[in-house]
Design a protein that fits this description.
Two copies of one chain form a homodimer. With about 110 residues, the first copy, chain A, is α+β, with helices and mostly antiparallel strands. Chain A is about 20% helix and about 40% strand. Chain A is built from two helices and eight strands, in the order βαββββαβββ. The first copy, chain A, has helices spanning about 15-25, 65-75, and strands at about 1-10, 30, 35-40, 45-50, 55-60, 80, 85-90, 95-100. An eight-stranded mixed sheet of chain A has the order 2-3-4-1-5-8-7-6. In chain A, β6 (about 80) and β7 (about 85-90) form a beta hairpin. Chain A starts with a strand and ends in an 8-residue tail after the last strand. At the A-B interface, β1, α1, β4 and β5 of A face β1, α1, β4 and β5 of B.
Amino acid sequence: MTFDHIAQVVPDIAEAVAWYTANVPGTRLLYQDATWAFLEAGGARLAFVLRDQHPGHLAFRVDDADLERLAAERGASVKPHRDGSRSFYLEGPAGQSIEIISYPKGDPFR
Amino acid sequence: MTFDHIAQVVPDIAEAVAWYTANVPGTRLLYQDATWAFLEAGGARLAFVLRDQHPGHLAFRVDDADLERLAAERGASVKPHRDGSRSFYLEGPAGQSIEIISYPKGDPFR
């Protein structure tokens, strides 16, 4: 299980991207639209999401077989995403969301 | 500027450590007391802190000269920590805290 990304809920996606671009030298924008963005800052991958779409979370990457096994063990249902990834959520400490994610079609941002 | 760690506010430090140890294979506990803990999970470094001591934050590492320069540019005051690190905080997107940190005496957890 490998750390994959941090996702933070923000009110304005473009504002969050602008903040990192201005304040963390070398920030690379990987994807942006009005509903979410993905960037690399200082070697970490950060997603910005809107409150009604995704919870803020930390994501750990596994291969697809492990994703199925772990989801089955926990009675969770795996959901496909627009970019080809698949994932489910665990409830972590203090109610925080932990996403377990696989990229069966390859990671679109690497 | 290099990504250094994620810090999350939790109500119970030991419970958070136990969750990661149980759910993220290979989690390595680097430090733990009743007020904070630090662990490595899937290659990421996670701190757990109590609400009245630190804000939840993302931390980026710089060298000590850059820390002084960046703090001066922003009128921020650098604070020393118990482990020899020094840092200041920026207000990131959506009011999130971003810590800029240096380890002039070396990183005690590497």
